[in-house]
């Protein structure tokens, strides 16, 4: 009996040791990235070995705040911070993303982070904190939740196959392994993947996910883009979300679809008794966005290359205008084609068309929410809808409709933001001044470059 027990215990110990060794082997070399979105929409990061991640969940890792002044290139903008100040990049547990679909590469494993000061408070220059503050203000004023989803347009660079015609099966099947990997990976990421499709441009594709409530809407966008990039990397491509790959080429947008939910989960954007089926709160929100649209372009279309895409006749909008189904309006109503009243009400949504992926999704959604909230606070009336391209109207017609042009450059957008005290008030003085400094530095970098050179530089980093 004793001999049996000794043998059994020996087998048990051996089994536990073997299991531990197998576990160690599986995780050997796996790095977990702690990542955060900065002013230029980059996901900066630090990494820790997998076996260390639990010890980093409470306080994360330190980061010199001067890093927030980085441009998309190798330049650091003038900033107020210097070498001493530091924040903690603290992982948000429910943003854990681990993609493990490749035999020849370790899992892609990361957390999104909050930037916090050493006393545990949100850092006033944190882009995630900016959006959280906007959501809290919107909820406090309206009692509603904000629901949103991005469209992700991108192009595959370094594809050796000649491009097929727009929107065709061939365009999809030429990169069948890529689309298969993206589909598997985004399912693992649990971002509510809805469509994977070819687009109009050369080697251009679009991926969409289901809308999400609040902070998750931005995080789904970030996770989706990074997973697309990773799937492309593994196959020797580069996925670029830049607004323009070539000056005269097709652009990549990051349109935002959004609506509001009441406490019962109903679509509070919809009211069949109101004009265009838009509820009163939705009408006021549209009015606020339209009023502040020229200024918030500095946050939603925030790079020199953005203004090679943004403009009339590009389906990217060139004017601060409102429309129903009009893709040249900067904000539009997207009615559902569903004939069932309940499903039509649920699907009814609004779309903001100016944003692109050189902007942090946190800043895009935060600016959108705050602009719309201002319209609600002031009870602004719904603008007159436009059913043509505003560029085809005369100056007099645009004036009668209250339609103003959007900025034609990043410098103009920054000037318009500076002239809008409401928009400036959404940021702390430090955040506002440091953000503008980064963007002015980007302008200086691009100043002596041709449009083609600007496109090429941004295509390689976005």
Give the topology.
Blueprint: H1 2-27, E1 31-37, E2 43-49, H2 53-56, E3 61-64, E4 86-91, E5 97-99, E6 108-116, H3 127-142, E7 145-157, H4 169-173, H5 176-189, E8 193-198, E9 204-209, E10 212-213, H6 215-234, E11 238-240, E12 256-261, H7 280-300, H8 306-309, E13 319-320, E14 322-324, E15 331-334, H9 341-347, E16 349-352, H10 361-377, H11 395-401, E17 404-405, H12 410-418, H13 421-424, H14 429-446, H15 451-461
Parallel strand pairs: 1-6, 14-15
Antiparallel strand pairs: 1-2, 3-4, 4-6, 5-6, 7-9, 7-10, 7-11, 7-12, 8-9, 12-16, 13-17, 15-16
Helix pairs in contact: 3-10, 5-6, 7-10, 7-12
Pfam families: Gln-synt_C (PF00120), Gln-synt_N_2 (PF16952)
Domain GS catalytic: 127-462
GO molecular function: ATP binding; glutamine synthetase activity
Structure commentary:
Helix content is 40%, strand content 19%. By secondary structure, it is α+β, with helices and mostly antiparallel strands. The strands form 3 sheets. Strands 7, 8, 9, 10, 11, 12, 14, 15 and 16 form a 9-stranded mixed beta sheet that branches. Strands 1, 2, 3, 4, 5 and 6 form a 6-stranded mixed beta sheet that branches. The N and C termini lie far apart (69 Å). Residues 1-26 have low confidence and may be disordered.
């Amino acid at each position: 009996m004793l001999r049996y027990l000794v043998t059994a215990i020996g087998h048990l110990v051996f089994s536990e040791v073997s299991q531990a060794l197998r576990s160690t082997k599986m995780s050997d070399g796996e790095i977990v990235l702690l990542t955060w979105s900065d002013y230029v929409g980059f996901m900066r990061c630090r990494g820790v070995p997998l076996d260390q991640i639990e010890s980093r969940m409470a306080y994360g890792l330190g980061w010199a705040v001067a890093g927030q002044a980085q441009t998309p290139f190798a330049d650091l903008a003038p900033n107020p911070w210097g070498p001493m100040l530091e924040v903690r990049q603290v992982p948000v547990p429910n943003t854990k993303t681990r993609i493990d679909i490749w035999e020849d590469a370790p899992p892609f494993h990361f957390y999104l982070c909050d930037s916090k000061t050493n006393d545990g408070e949100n850092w006033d220059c944190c882009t995630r904190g900016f959006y959280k503050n906007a959501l809290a203000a919107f909820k406090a004023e309206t009692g509603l939740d904000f629901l949103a989803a991005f469209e992700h347009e991108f192009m595959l660079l370094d594809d050796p196959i000649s491009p097929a015609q727009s929107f065709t099966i061939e365009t999809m099947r030429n990169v069948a392994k890529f689309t298969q990997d993206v589909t598997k990976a985004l399912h693992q990421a649990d971002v509510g993947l809805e469509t994977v499709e070819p687009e109009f441009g050369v080697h251009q594709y679009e991926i969409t996910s289901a809308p999400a409530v609040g902070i998750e809407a931005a995080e789904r966008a970030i996770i989706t883009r990074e997973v697309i990039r990773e799937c492309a990397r593994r196959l020797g491509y580069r996925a670029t979300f830049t607004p323009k790959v070539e000056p005269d080429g097709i652009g990549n947008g990051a349109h935002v679809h959004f609506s509001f939910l009441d406490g019962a989960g109903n679509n509070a954007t919809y009211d069949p008794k109101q004009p265009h089926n838009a509820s009163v709160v939705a009408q006021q929100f549209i009015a606020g966005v339209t009023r502040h649209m020229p200024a918030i372009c500095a946050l939603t279309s925030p790079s020199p290359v953005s203004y090679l895409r943004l403009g009339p006749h590009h389906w990217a909008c060139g004017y601060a205008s409102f429309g129903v189904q009009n893709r040249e309006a900067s904000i539009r109503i997207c009615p559902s084609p569903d004939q069932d009243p309940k499903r039509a009400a649920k699907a009814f949504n609004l779309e903001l068309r100016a944003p692109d992926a050189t902007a942090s999704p946190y800043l895009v959604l935060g600016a959108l929410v705050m602009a719309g909230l201002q319209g609600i606070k002031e009870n602004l009336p719904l603008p007159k809808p436009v059913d043509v391209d505003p560029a085809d109207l005369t100056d007099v017609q645009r004036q009668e409709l209250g339609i103003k042009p959007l900025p034609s450059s990043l410098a103009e957008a920054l000037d318009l933001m500076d002239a809008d005290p409401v928009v400036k008030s959404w940021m702390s003085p430090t955040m506002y001044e440091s953000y503008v400094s980064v963007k002015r530095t980007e302008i200086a970098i691009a100043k002596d470059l041709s449009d083609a050179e600007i496109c090429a530089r941004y295509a390689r980093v976005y």
